[in-house]
Amino acid sequence: MRVTFNELAERELNDAAEYYEHEQPGLGAAFISEVQRCTEAITAFPDAAPVVRGAIRQRLCQRFPYGLLYSVTSDEIRVIAVMHLRRRPGYWVGRQ
Asked: Which residues contact 71 (CB under 8 A, 6 or more apart)?
């Protein structure tokens, strides 16, 4: 099953990685690696994460205060947000 990122989710991912890299060299790459680990876990077990709204599920990152919000179809996992867990909780509603 393939994984795709909403354009805004991809921007959130890149902005967060850039922020972490600015804070400490190498931390941005560690953030990207953690998101990749989460993506692999989602691919392996797409229905394992809890539903947060409608058909949207949330997988939490371990080392960083972020979660991946995603939906599952028959042929695709669509990440709709790379969400910081302590900011604006419902900003992603309406994304596809």
From this structure: 55, 56, 57, 77, 78, 80, 96
Is 9 a domain residue?
yes
To the nearest 10°, report the CA torsion of 87, 90, 92, 94.
Answer: -170
Any domain includes 32: yes
The Cα–Cα gap between 45 and 56 comes to: 14
- 53-94 pLDDT per residue, tens: 989 999 999 999 999 999 999 899 999 999 998 887 766 676
Task: Give the chain's domain count.
Answer: 1
